[in-house]
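Obj.: predict assembly geometry.
Materials: sequence records (below).
Method: joint structure prediction, all chains together.
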Amino acid sequence: MDEKYSIGEFAKKTGTTIRALRYYDEIHLLKPTLVSPSGRRYYSNNDIIQLQKIVALKFLGYSLEKISEFLHLKDWDLKDSLAFQKQEMVQRKEHIERVIRALDHALHIMEDQGTINSSIFISLINNIQMEDEHKEWLKGLIPESTVEGLYDLSEEKQQELNTRTAILLTKMKEAVGKNPESDEVQGLIQQYMDIAEDVLGGSLELIQDLLDSQVEIEDDPVLFPSPFTPEEEEWLGKAMEIYLKRKGVVFNGDETSK
Amino acid sequence: MDEKYSIGEFAKKTGTTIRALRYYDEIHLLKPTLVSPSGRRYYSNNDIIQLQKIVALKFLGYSLEKISEFLHLKDWDLKDSLAFQKQEMVQRKEHIERVIRALDHALHIMEDQGTINSSIFISLINNIQMEDEHKEWLKGLIPESTVEGLYDLSEEKQQELNTRTAILLTKMKEAVGKNPESDEVQGLIQQYMDIAEDVLGGSLELIQDLLDSQVEIEDDPVLFPSPFTPEEEEWLGKAMEIYLKRKGVVFNGDETSK
DNA sequence: CTTGCTTCTCCCGTTACGTTAGGTTTTATG
DNA sequence: CATAAAACCTAACGTAACGGGAGAAGCAAG
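Observations (raw structure tokens):
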């Protein structure tokens, strides 16, 4: 009933390691009931219960320091703490879910394409990573309901759009330098606009709005990764301008003068 | 176009910290394009792209060492790596989900009860933590289909059962020492069996099976936490025996010798 | 008494930086 | 041009929860 276990026996019995037990002793989290004159640690059945508490709380994500407080204060004000801990865990879960979504999108594109351009890859990841910030930022430019609608697409739809966009961006990068007025380039822009229309619900006004707001974006404190280099962007800008002019959108040509 | 940024400017522009940039320099992950004779670091636009790659890969959960490999080998064998990384993340997610479930159950009980006995709390957590191991273990004792059915209850149902069980266990702990043959104690056992029937689908045979297998559990290498102390268990065993005898179940009275 | 197993106490290594401390360089201003 | 303020530098310790190794000592059996 009041058996004594050596540290090795105790470790085996409880599924922990000897090293961990010594560590718990060191930080005063769980001290053996008895220490022999020669310094050997001996644990009792009572210590098993204590260790179980520690393991359970560790599973819930508490640090050993917090656990120490709980067990020492002996006053389990769990309720609040558990609720708080749950919030923490829910946040971690959401983070991981975003990561998984990003991985899925990237994998999906690679299956379709076999490979992926590194800068496209980066901006893809970044889009998902910054989802919330982007949302808030867009809300400053276009109506909130539209923004929510944008992000409220089904997972499949998002996958598809991302893939189409990635393929298109790849083609565009290959086309850089070609005559912006050529049918090929204008065709790509057309495709891009088709996707944009698909997402935005089809009015060119939004695009106009976005263009008008460009000026402010220039010196954004934190820099958004664009999949294009400055040279590529200049070329793209030209092609875009031509496209929009042909469609009758007014472009207030503000040259990027610092 | 080929601007140079001091470390401070660069940090602000990219949303990292100065310390992080110095650390990346130290571990040869991202070295500034130019270092002045006095030792000051100056970064270029090219470094921005590198840093974006680093940030993106970090978001996906890669260690800086792995990232270093990727960027140095220049040979993005992402496909496999991404798939592997996804597996990792899915596992982490599952872990967190178990933790959240455990927290939910505990919170649910506390809302109902206002408090919770620490040993009941521990065994509750442990049940969820060990879910998979318990499953496997039970499959050795009762038919696999029954086991799967057991764990396939809805979240709500599980909550409810856990709460009822916890309340009952609390009452039982309070009743320890009372006459096992009294109506009160036998009533509690009856309630316990009601819950068991609810879960197991109502045959006493399973309980018989479980009782028969008790012998083997005794010296399980890794010790399962039970919410009862040995004394409490002994008392419970008696009450249980009386209950089952009255119901006509044969109990092969194997005294816990050794 | 020797062998072999268990345990002991240091102490370094891990990750990705944060945080001083104490000294130097660059930039801004009078 | 002198000096103050801002920015930057290196060096070094701290973090969380142990893992792993070195070298010494305890303990039971033959």
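Conclusions so far: Residues 17, 19-20, 22-23, 27, 36, 38-40, 63-65 of chain A lie near DNA strand D (CB under 10 Å from a C1').
To do: check interface contacts against the pulldown list.
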